[in-house]
Recover the amino acids of this structure.
């Protein structure tokens, strides 16, 4: 138990590589004790270790390992009812060998003397229903990166967690509890529900189903309103960021920019940040999305590009989040007109490698589309067509109508250059059909600037919705 708590402390302290490695070393020590009969008799402890282990892998952004650990957790949760009886209140006790404890000394129920003379240390953790909902949340996060490519399994997992948690919150608990414990448990369940709703909203944004995302965000706001301010503050920051994402995704760029440039997302002025890891990641994401909006030369705030890129450089270069690093390199390549071709290629290569490492289909799609347009525009050849078709396949795989329409435009232009006019027209018409389903403001902007369905990835200002896991 002690080494598991040590691992949790490291993970809460920072998302740096060093802290994650220290957490994993502590977990290795905890796992080395699992064959001990005293430990194997506590399914709650084994489940806690597995949950913390999965969290460490999620913070490390290692999708293949996260999925393996997710499956282990699910197997563990499925088999718990068969051989063990978990207490309804979620508590468990660990025997303290050779402990000397006076039964008359107050212990607030943390330490108790047993009839046989032994002493136990009591822990309040999670009842069975809450463990199940937590497992749904962690499992949903572990497979969110491929939600658009595998039939929205992550969304289904998260919705199952919501269903279970709503049922748990609403049902009458037959076991009496103190007012303090009941209040604490209610807050915990509302917090868990908020995090499930939050992750589900991010998944819906990446899939560009904006009305569903807006509805889910509204429900998240309602749940958060019931929480104490000290708990709700961080959630409200994430809600604010998601509000900006949805505004950006639906073409309300003025509202999105006002949110992303608000004081809540101000970047630290020094490389050492006083912000929490989550707050810093949100500030970086807000700045990246700001770049996507103001990158157009005609935008009134376009002159802020150089200073914003300069501020982001030390923060992104040292950030362990590969997805953030990929987005940063992509934007350096697309937002710096004075960058040489060699540097542009290097940044795009870095972006592609980081996107592959983090298994981000969305970032790979954006990067390949820009590479096709930048380096193969007007080029006749097999490589140009392969690049355009790869971009189109990624956009279709990601269920992103905006980028699928852009990719169709890139491919149509490539086919035009090769004098394959019939194929080009067919692909372009398909792109126009897809674009017809976009919000009016996005279609109008694309048609005015010549980028939607015409091979110009400038509409990237609507295109990055990624958020922290």
């Amino acid at each position: 138990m002690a080494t598991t708590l040590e691992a949790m402390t490291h993970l809460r302290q920072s998302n740096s590589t060093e802290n994650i490695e220290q957490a994993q070393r502590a977990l290795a020590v905890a796992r080395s004790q699992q064959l001990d009969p005293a430990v194997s008799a506590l399914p709650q402890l084994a489940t806690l270790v597995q949950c913390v282990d999965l969290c460490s892998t999620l913070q490390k952004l290692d999708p293949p390992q996260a999925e393996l650990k997710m499956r282990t957790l699910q197997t563990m949760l499925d088999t718990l009812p068969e051989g063990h009886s978990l207490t309804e209140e979620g508590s468990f006790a660990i025997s303290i060998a050779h402990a000397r404890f006076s039964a008359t000394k107050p212990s607030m129920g943390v330490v108790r003397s047993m009839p046989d003379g032994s002493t136990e240390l009591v822990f309040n953790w999670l009842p069975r229903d809450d463990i199940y909902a937590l497992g749904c949340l962690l499992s949903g996060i572990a497979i969110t990166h491929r939600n658009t490519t595998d039939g929205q399994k992550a969304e289904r997992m998260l919705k199952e967690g919501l269903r279970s948690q709503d049922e748990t919150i609403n049902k009458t608990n037959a076991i009496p509890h103190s007012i303090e414990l009941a209040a604490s448990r209610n807050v915990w369940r509302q917090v868990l529900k908020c995090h499930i709703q939050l992750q589900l909203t991010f998944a819906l944004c990446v899939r560009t189903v904006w009305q569903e995302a807006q509805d889910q965000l509204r429900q998240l706001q309602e749940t958060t309103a019931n929480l104490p301010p000290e708990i709700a503050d961080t959630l409200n920051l994430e809600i604010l960021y998601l509000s900006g994402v949805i505004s950006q995704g639906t073409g309300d760029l003025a509202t999105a920019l006002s949110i992303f440039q608000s004081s809540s997302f101000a970047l630290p002025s020094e490389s050492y940040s006083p912000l929490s890891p989550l707050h810093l990641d949100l500030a970086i994401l807000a700045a990246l999305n700001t770049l996507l909006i103001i990158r157009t030369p005609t935008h009134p705030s376009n002159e802020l590009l150089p200073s914003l890129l300069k501020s982001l450089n030390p923060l992104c270069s040292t950030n362990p989040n590969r997805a953030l690093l990929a987005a940063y390199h992509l934007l350096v390549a697309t937002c710096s007109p004075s960058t040489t071709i060699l540097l542009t290629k290097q940044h795009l290569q870095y972006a592609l490698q980081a996107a592959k490492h983090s298994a981000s289909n969305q970032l790979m799609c954006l990067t390949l589309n820009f590479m096709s347009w930048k380096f193969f525009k007007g080029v006749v050849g097999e490589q140009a067509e392969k690049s355009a078709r790869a971009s189109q396949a990624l956009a279709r795989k990601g269920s992103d109508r905006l980028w699928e329409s852009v990719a169709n435009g890139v491919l149509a232009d490539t086919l035009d250059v090769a004098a394959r006019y019939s194929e080009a027209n067919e692909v372009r018409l398909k792109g126009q059909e897809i674009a017809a389903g976009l919000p009016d403001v996005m279609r109008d902007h694309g048609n005015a600037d010549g980028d939607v369905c015409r091979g110009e990835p400038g509409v990237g200002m609507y295109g990055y919705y990624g958020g922290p896991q």
Observations:
- The first helix runs from residue 2 to 13.
- The first strand starts at residue 91 and ends at 96.
